[in-house]
Structure formats: structure tokens, C-alpha cells
Design goal:
Length: about 800
């Protein structure tokens, strides 16, 4: 998907090229134009992708299910995106090791699923993270992450984790623009966190080499603040006093003798003043400096200015920048990035979801009707894709992240952002300064300028490609004689079953092969092999599809308060009761509707062997009633001949490919020795068939009764393993009490999670209506609605109601 550049920006860009602010245009064309052009080339080939995950809750017990809905949007306009068709979702333990993993289809009407939390999990804080293969290029800091708490009521807790000591405190300093330069005024942001990654209160002093006080500072909010000073050629250190009077000493980044410094300040007329200063003796090929500003890869400003008295100023209209986070980067005449920082413009609109229950209080097992209206916050309606969760409020956690603050703020910043809603919704006088400090301390980008500004014309390469058509299995072929990657080796993947699918790939110069598995659902056994009759000296290693890099996010220490013991006991009883009485209904999966045709389509001939005289020798089966395929012996071994029905029955040049439940059998003697009484069906494709990089000289496809190979022994050099496909869709179970018999049932209904729907589409007027029933538990219930509209608005809302009079 390509995005048009603002015409005003394009006009300004070419105006600068032609007018050149009084300088020759030719020189600017040689330098600025490649920056602008190469960045646009990069962004059109590296469209950022974002995932947001709505969890039904953030606090769970083992024995419960964690339900989720995934929203996949483009990283520029936050519109729903259909680039990747597979997402990876993991539950990471306190040690950052995955304890549960799954693959989720991102096709329409799917994009959701659940984890059943097994009793093997220990109590603690966990991290749900989600990403696509394409998102791996940006690194784990760009993955969606949501902390959750899981309590195992059947495992005794260990002793509480001790509070972090002073050595665990972390204080970091971030010069505006990237560097300190001796003799140039500087703004330095700082951030102090404890061992659990939470912002701390502290006071600090900046000391010079002679222990003289240069500046005093303290955070304004969430451990973040800034101070200003003009560095000189000496070593600085910050002495920070934290809680309890303990101190932490941190060296300040060293100041360069020569270089560039950047300052961004508010100016009149809704503009930003971007000032760039340099030292007199800084080497440079030209006085020209270039400012490129982009908002999530969409170029908004491209300007040229020239140094005068070692200083240059760019005046940027804030309205020219997009909403959300913009990157402002200054380049020299050689296209080298000199300074960079972020700027945040609060978005003016968001998706609203007004929810109106038909009552404020309900009885047990009573129907709840909700009217939902989605809008843009300015009186307009919006068709939107919503997800809704309704659960009993207790002291065990609350809603998770909301899509508005995630997509506009935290997804574009490195590290944990405390209370992101403050920066988007806060109205006190300190919000602008706090937001600017956040931009300085959490700044990052998803790319390296070195990749963007390559001087050669070859396209940049990305290690991880989007999975357009389905999950891609990656493997490596290795020569066992040398241990080196094997090039040009044809490799085969099949999953034994009634649905006949075969995938082939040829290894590249790194020995890598990729198999795109379309509509591959549920746990399956896969067989990966080369042709052992030709390539018997190769080993295949299957790569994990899950990311093996992790963000630096830290989870807090887990300590279960005595105040929640009673609440946990009640919820544990409810969980066990629901699993005993309704466990079978809570674990029902929907099989996807798939094309039942084999990969080769309708065969030329199909034989159901039970309709013919059964033979006990496979050779007799082929000789007596299969036309177009013949088995003969040569030097004690069988070989097959097949005649092409599409070309006057000419003999095909090689043995046809023999399949058993979709798995290639290269040794004809083995299939001829197999018991034909175990075969239900035989398909014959008496013609050449092109499958990916391989031309198949006809196909002879045997199918057993159960699709399980019926005891056939595969080649021992094959890789045979259990492999999870895309997660099967699981239905959320909630009883209906629309009949008197159901309402009067003596089976207890102790549901805490009353309702979960990952797909609540609104109509063109933004309207939707939901209905569900309360349980036997009285209390206050919280509803959470998340959603994204087709034009990129995101938002969240909550509502409450009460359940009373539980006696029936």
C-alpha cells in the first residue's frame, strides 16, 4: 500500500530544489533529492505493521482461559491491514521464557483465539506479546506487550521477592538531538526507574570534574524530567539521591569537541523552532543542512537551510506534521544524519463507543441488552470493528491497554510508558512538558538511516518477509559430510492426512527453504525430507517461527497480598465449578471450512478400491484395473511408467511421484510391498504437473482409510515432528436463560466472565446490539469495548451494571 505525500510538502521540496534560497539549484538536486527519494523508496517497501491485542481481562487463575482479539493495522494511518495473514502470540514467564505459544490467522472473521492456562503454571506476573513475521524486522521493542497476572491456587507460593536495592535503580540521560557538544547549549532529559521498571522520585545534582555544582534536577512525573546546561571539555557525573537517602552515581555522556547540537522549542503562530548549532572547527563539505520530518514513515517536511555564524534555524508549522509521533532528522550535505529527536502532536479525534445497558441493575440469570454506538467524538458515526468483554469487578486487576493510546503513542516508543493516557487525555499545565520529556527519553526508530541512504541502487533486503498466503515453515538443509549449508536441494513437506497437500522448495545459497502452508490449522504431524535416492547425505533442521529476541521490559516482583485471599478463594471455587459442570461446552472448537480437493485438483482417474475386486498385492491392483500407470521390474526393483493423457499417451520421462496420504514415497519397492487392503482410494494424474519449482512427471496418490499412513514406515532420514498450525477457532460458551427450564436449572452458574465477543461489527450508522445473560454471582460488572474503524480511528470505553437478588 502506498501513501501520497502531502502536495504542499512536495511543492516545498521542489521549490527548494529550484530556488535554493539564493544558492545554485544543481548542488541541492545532487544531495537533498536522494534523501527524499531514498526514504520514500524505503518506506514503500517497508510498510510498518502494528498489532493491538484486546484481552478479556488481565488477572487469571490457572484453569481459566485467556481470550484475545487481534487488531492488525498499518503503522502509518492505523487503518486495518491485510498484509500478514498470520500472527504469533506468546505468554512469557517471569524469566522471559515462553510458556505458551500459538499461531493465529489474521484472515477476516478470525483474528481471535484463546489460551487455556494449565495447572503447570506457577503464580506470577507474565507477559502476553504478539507480532507478525514482518514485524520481526523492527525488533522486539515493536511487538505488542501486555503484562498479566496468573495465580495458581493449587501451588503454594514461595517467599515474597525482596524489594530491589539501590544497585537495581537505573538512571539514564538523553541529550536532545543525540549528543553533547562542548560549548553548545544543551537540553538533557533523564529517566530514573527502580528494579521493576517503574519511575521513581529522586533528586539529583550534576557535578563537574572539580566537584562543582553545574545543575540541580528532579523528575516532574514518572521518574522523567530534564535540565539545561552548556557542557565543556570535562567529565560530568550525576549524583542521584533516591528513597531512603541512598545515592546512585551515573556518568553523563561525554561531550564531543566538535559536532552539531539540536534544540526544538515552541514558537509563535503554531510553529516549532528547530535550531541547529555547530562548533567553528567542525569539518564540513558545505554549509547546507537538511531537515527531514516524517510521521510514521510519511514525509511531512523537507527543507534546506544554510549555516550562518555556525547556526541555522528551521521554522516548522506544527499542522504540517502528522498527528502522533514525528521524527525530525537533520542531515549534512553528504546525507549523513547529524541530529534527531521526536515530537508529539496529540491526535484530535478518537473512536468513541457509547454503551447503553437497558437497565442499571439486573437479577440473576436475567438478559442484559446493550446498545452500542460508535462515533468519531465530534458527532459523526463510524462503522467499526469492536470487541467486548464483560466481567465481575473485584480487587484482582482491571482493563488492559486501550488501542488509542497504544497505536498513537506507546507502539512508537521504546520501553515501558507509564500511564500513557495521561499524555493523550491529561489537561493539566504540566502535560506539554511531560510529553516532551517522554519524547526525549523513549525515542527510537524502526529503521537505520544506513539502510535507507545506501548509495547503490540495489533494493535493501529484509530478513523477515510478510506471510501473505499462510504460515511459512522455515528450514535449513545441511550437508552432513561438511556441516555446510546445502544449495539447490529439492525439499518436500507434507502432513499425513485426508486432505492431500504437498509443498516443495529448493534450498538457496544459505541452505534455507521456505514452505508456505495455506489453511494449515490445528496440531498436525509433518514430514520433511529430501529424495533419499538422490540426496542421501543431507540433514534438515526446522527453524522455530517464534521470535527469539526479547524486549527489555521488566515485570514487577510478584507478591500476593493477604487482602485478596478471600476473593481468590471465591474465584477458584467458581473456576472449578464451571470446569466440572460445563468443561465440555467450554472447550468446543470450530473446524475451518477448507477446500477438500487435493493440491493437484481433480485427478484424471480416481479409484475407490472397495468397488473393485480386492487384491493382496499392489502390483495386481495397478495391472488389473488402473489404466495409464504400469509397474515393471528391472534388476530386482520396481519402476513405474505413466502415459501422458494430454499428449497422445506419450510415456512420461521419469517415475511418477508416489504419495501415501500426501507424503512422497521415493522408493517404489516400498509402496509396492505395502498392503493394498489398507488403501481406500487411488488417484492418478497422468500428465506433467508443475508444483512450485518442481515438475512432477505424473502423480500416483494413495489414500488410507484414516489418513494416518496405516503403519507405513517412512524413511528414517525424514524429519517427522508434531507441528502446530494456526489455532482452531474456539467458541466462548455462555448459557442462555430464555426458557423457564433453563432458568430453573439447579446447575450452578458461577461465571465471572459473563460475555466475550471478539467480533462486534457495527452498521454504517455505528450501531450494534448485544445480548447475554447474568450468572448467579451478584456484584458490579465491568464492560470493556475496544475497536478500530476503517479510517484508522481507535478507541476504548467502559460501562458498569450491577447484579443483585441472586436467590431464585
Amino acid at each position: 500500500m502506498q501513501y501520497a505525500i502531502n502536495p504542499a510538502v512536495r511543492g516545498l521540496f521542489f521549490l527548494l530544489l529550484l530556488a535554493g534560497a539564493g544558492r545554485p539549484a544543481a548542488g541541492q538536486t545532487d544531495t537533498l533529492h536522494p534523501v527524499y527519494r531514498q526514504f520514500n523508496t524505503y518506506r514503500t517497501g517497508a510498510l510498518p505493521e502494528k498489532l493491538f491485542v484486546h484481552l478479556d481481562r488481565t488477572y487469571y487463575l490457572t484453569g481459566e482461559s485467556l481470550w484475545f482479539k487481534l487488531y492488525c493495522v498499518d503503522g502509518v494511518g492505523h487503518r486495518p491491514l491485510h498484509l500478514s495473514q498470520v500472527a504469533y502470540l506468546e505468554l512469557l514467564g517471569p524469566d522471559r521464557k515462553p510458556v505458551l505459544q500459538t499461531k493465529v490467522s489474521l484472515a477476516d472473521n478470525e483474528r481471535s483465539g484463546a489460551f487455556f492456562l494449565p495447572a503447570s503454571l506457577s503464580s506470577g506476573h507474565y507477559l502476553v506479546r504478539a507480532y507478525t513475521n514482518w514485524m520481526k524486522n523492527a525488533g522486539p521493542d515493536f511487538f505488542f506487550e501486555q503484562p498479566v497476572t496468573i495465580v495458581n491456587p493449587f501451588k503454594r507460593l514461595g517467599p515474597p521477592v525482596a524489594a530491589p536495592d539501590s544497585a537495581a535503580y537505573d538512571v539514564q540521560f538523553f541529550p536532545e538531538g543525540g549528543n553533547l557538544v562542548s560549548g553548545l547549549p544543551a537540553k538533557v532529559a533523564f529517566r530514573g526507574v527502580d528494579g521493576q521498571g517503574k519511575g521513581i522520585a529522586f533528586s539529583g545534582v550534576l557535578l563537574g570534574a572539580a566537584n562543582d555544582t553545574v545543575a540541580r534536577f528532579a523528575p516532574t512525573r514518572y521518574g522523567i524530567g530534564h535540565f539545561t546546561f552548556t557542557p565543556t571539555a570535562q567529565a560530568y557525573r550525576a549524583v542521584v539521591k533516591v528513597a531512603g537517602g541512598r545515592t546512585v552515581t551515573v556518568p553523563l555522556p561525554a561531550a564531543y569537541e566538535r559536532g552539531y547540537a539540536m534544540q526544538v522549542t515552541e514558537a509563535d503562530g503554531g510553529r516549532l523552532k528547530v535550531t541547529v548549532r555547530t562548533t567553528r572547527d567542525t569539518p564540513r563539505s558545505s554549509p547546507a543542512l537538511y531537515l527531514l520530518a516524517h510521521t510514521r514513515h510519511a514525509v511531512k517536511v523537507a527543507e534546506t537551510r544554510y549555516l550562518e555564524d555556525n547556526e541555522v534555524t528551521f521554522m516548522v508549522d506544527k499542522n504540517a506534521l502528522g498527528e502522533g509521533i514525528s521524527h525530525l532528522t537533520v542531515f549534512d550535505a553528504d546525507r549523513k544524519p547529524l541530529c534527531e529527536r521526536l515530537y508529539f502532536r496529540r491526535p484530535a479525534r478518537r473512536l468513541t463507543a457509547a454503551v447503553k445497558p437497558d437497565k442499571g441493575q439486573y437479577a440473576a440469570r436475567e438478559k442484559v441488552s446493550l446498545d452500542v454506538t460508535a462515533g468519531d467524538g465530534a458527532g459523526g458515526s463510524r462503522a467499526a470493528d469492536l470487541s467486548v468483554s464483560v466481567y465481575r469487578l473485584d480487587s484482582l486487576g482491571g482493563p488492559g491497554a486501550d488501542p488509542h493510546s497504544y497505536l498513537w503513542l506507546t507502539s512508537d516508543l521504546r520501553g515501558n510508558v507509564e500511564s500513557p493516557g495521561y499524555y493523550l487525555d491529561g489537561d493539566d499545565a504540566g502535560v506539554p512538558e511531560a510529553t516532551d520529556n517522554l519524547m526525549l527519553t523513549h525515542g527510537w526508530r524502526r529503521f537505520r538511516w544506513e539502510d535507507v541512504l545506501r548509495r547503490d541502487t540495489a533494493a535493501f533486503s529484509l530478513a523477515h518477509l510478510p506471510e501473505y498466503g499462510g504460515h511459512v515453515v522455515r528450514a535449513k538443509v545441511i550437508d552432513t559430510r561438511t556441516g555446510a549449508p546445502a544449495t539447490g536441494i529439492m525439499t518436500y513437506l507434507a502432513a499425513p492426512g485426508k486432505l492431500i497437500r504437498l509443498y516443495v522448495a529448493r534450498s538457496n545459497d544459505q541452505g534455507l527453504v521456505r514452505f508456505e502452508l495455506k489453511d494449515f490449522f490445528g496440531p498436525r504431524e509433518i514430514v520433511v525430507q529430501t529424495n533419499p535416492l538422490r540426496d542421501s547425505t543431507y540433514r534438515i533442521e526446522i527453524s522455530t517461527p517464534y521470535a527469539e529476541a526479547f524486549s527489555e521490559r521488566r515485570l514487577p516482583a510478584f507478591d500476593l497480598s493477604e487482602n485478596v485471599q478471600q476473593t481468590l478463594s471465591e474465584r477458584s471455587l467458581s473456576m472449578q465449578t464451571q470446569n466440572v459442570y460445563f468443561g465440555d461446552r467450554q472447550n468446543q472448537f470450530r473446524a475451518p471450512v477448507l477446500d477438500s480437493l487435493p493440491f493437484y485438483g481433480t485427478p484424471d482417474e480416481r479409484y475407490f478400491l472397495d468397488e473393485f475386486t480386492r487384491f493382496t498385492v499392489m502390483e495386481d491392483v495397478l495391472r488389473e484395473y488402473v489404466t495409464g500407470a504400469y509397474a515393471r521390474r528391472r534388476r530386482g526393483s520396481y519402476y513405474l511408467t505413466m502415459y501422458d493423457k494430454g499428449h497422445d499417451m506419450e510415456a512420461l520421462l521419469d517415475n511418477p511421484v508416489v504419495l501415501l496420504d500426501g507424503v512422497p514415497v521415493f522408493d517404489v519397492d516400498k509402496i509396492m510391498a505395502f498392503d493394498p487392503l489398507k488403501i481406500k482410494r487411488l488417484d492418478v494424474m497422468a500428465r506433467n504437473y508443475l508444483l512450485g519449482p518442481l515438475l512432477l512427471p505424473g502423480i500416483l496418490s494413495y489414500a488410507t482409510y484414516k489418513g494416518d499412513l496405516a503403519g507405513f514406515r517412512l524413511d528414517p532420514r525424514s524429519v517427522i515432528m508434531e507441528y502446530d498450525g494456526l489455532q482452531l477457532q474456539r467458541d466462548f460458551y455462555a448459557p442462555r436463560y430464555d426458557a423457564a427450564k433453563a432458568r430453573e436449572s439447579r446447575l450452578p452458574d458461577l461465571r465471572h466472565l459473563l460475555y466475550w465477543s471478539p467480533r462486534v461489527p457495527t452498521d454504517a450508522q455505528g450501531k450494534a446490539r448485544l445480548e447475554f445473560y447474568t450468572s448467579d454471582l451478584e456484584g458490579v460488572y465491568l464492560g470493556v469495548v475496544n475497536g478500530v474503524s476503517a479510517d484508522g480511528l481507535a478507541g476504548s470505553s467502559t460501562f458498569t451494571f450491577e447484579v443483585r437478588n441472586v436467590a431464585r
